[in-house]
Amino acid sequence: MRAVSGPLGDRKLLGLVGPTASGKTALSLALAEALGAEIVSVDSMLVYRGMDVGTAKPTAEERARVRHHLVDLADPSESYDVVRYAADVEACVGAAGDRPLLFVGGTGFYWRALTHGIFDGPPTSPELRKELEQRARDIGAEALHAELVAIDPVAATRIHPNDVRRVVRALEVERQTGRTLTDWQAQWREGPGMTGEPRAGAERTLVGLQVEPEVLESRIRERTRRMLDGGWIEEVRAIRDGAGFGPTAVQALGYPEVLRHLDGELDRAELQTTIALRTRQFARRQRTWFRKFPEIEWVPAPEPAGLDRWVETWADRFSC
User: Fold this and answer.
1) How far apart are CA 117 and CA 280, in angstroms?
2) Are residues 213 and 113 part of one domain?
3) Which one of 23, 51, 88, 216 is separated from 174 by 20 to 30 angstroms, measured CA to CA?
4) Domain span including residue 254
């Protein structure tokens, strides 16, 4: 097994984390301005062009205030994964030079790539990969995916049948090593890198925003209503009727429910209620995931009126 080094090298990691609707966007803008920093997104869905309303992507005005990186990198029909994210971070860090970067977002898997490096698996085998790619052409993507279901059903549930590249990689790993991709990844997740000192990067300041559950629930309900009123349904319709959603983008929070609404399965009220419920459940999973990061210092999220005071208090801690 290879766990490659993190994409940050020796750069100090300045990070603002928290569950969805915890106020990261507004606070990160104020903090970045105080630090003279640029913002690097740590969000697996902000990478998709055209998915603006439903992902609560920073607006054009907000991005004009502070330069944002790793936003709008791929079309919704494309696949985008943590390996590509790590490569994009590495390029971003290299281009930034001495400019401070503030990492902001709630995708725990991407945060782990920043702090612990990424799992890279056994080395690739060009001959075996070529054989498997030819087999995909011969028998079709669904049949090849069925072979993965037979040997590694856990990985198969995560990999879309049309994502031939990832199906081939999972089959390649099992053929090379006699162990499934799921086994390799479990060893990485449970190894000393997650329970002990992070392997990747150097000094880090990670601050997490805490919001009382009842306050977060109220924010989620209001934000869901506002996003639906603000064109989310029309956004999803335009993507569906265009190039369509790929296997990764279609998993974005709330988007499957909007697609069900467009198919007549949910009325407008049911849509809003269902998305708010899914979002609350997602926020709970985020909080659970972030418990794996002992270096995060959790602090109460400020109210909008208290942003400036919060920034004054914390700016020195984030200073490079």
Assistant:
1) 29
2) yes
3) 88
4) 3-117+199-318
What gap in Å lies between CA 227 and CA 216, rounded to an integer? 16
pLDDT attached to residue 117 = 79
Cβ burial of 255 (10 Å; 0-12, 13-18, 19+) is buried
Q: Which residue has the tokens 């079309």?
A: 75
Verify that 112 and 228 share a domain, yes or no. yes
In terms of pTM, does the model score above 0.70?
yes
Other C-beta atoms within 10 Å of 150: how many?
9
Name the domain count of the chain. 2
Q: Angle at Cα 287 formed by Cα 283 and Cα 288, nearest 5°?
A: 115
Q: Which residues have C-beta within 8 Å of that of residue 163, sequence separation ≥ 6? A: 79, 247
Q: Which of 172, 190, 208 is the last residue of a domain?
A: 190
Q: Does residue 133 surpass a pLDDT of 60?
A: yes
The verdict on 178 and 204 lying in the same domain is: no
What is the DSSP secondary-structure string of 139-200? H-HHHHHHHHHHH-HHHHHHS-TT-HHHHHHHHHHHHHHSS-HHHHHHHHHHSHHHHSS-SS
